[in-house]
Design goal:
The protein is of the alpha+beta class. Helices cover 33% and strands 28% of the residues. A four-stranded antiparallel β-sheet has the order 2-1-3-4, covered by helices on one side.
């Protein structure tokens, strides 16, 4: 069974979020890190950002959480420690 995953990202609050289909949790981590790094590079042009990973469930995308109920950003943060 194929799992449908997509990263969502919003570089400036109030704008429509960007979506990118990904094939794995690792690819999602890589994309989110790249988007974070790019926003840091842009500096003051970015007012605030937010992002995450969604999974398609019952024809609707919902926020992805692992078996410990952690979002992808919480997972990535815990891996940095």
């Amino acid at each position: 069974m194929k799992i449908n995953l997509r990263v969502w990202w919003n570089s400036n609050f109030g704008h429509k979020p960007f979506h990118k289909q990904v094939n794995s949790i690792q690819e999602a981590k890589d994309v989110l890190q790249l988007l974070t790094d790019y926003d840091l590079y842009l500096g003051d042009k970015i007012v605030g950002n937010a992002g995450g990973l969604e999974i398609l469930q019952d024809d609707e995308y919902i926020e992805f959480c692992d078996d410990d109920d952690r979002t992808i950003l919480e997972i990535m943060d815990s891996e940095k420690k």
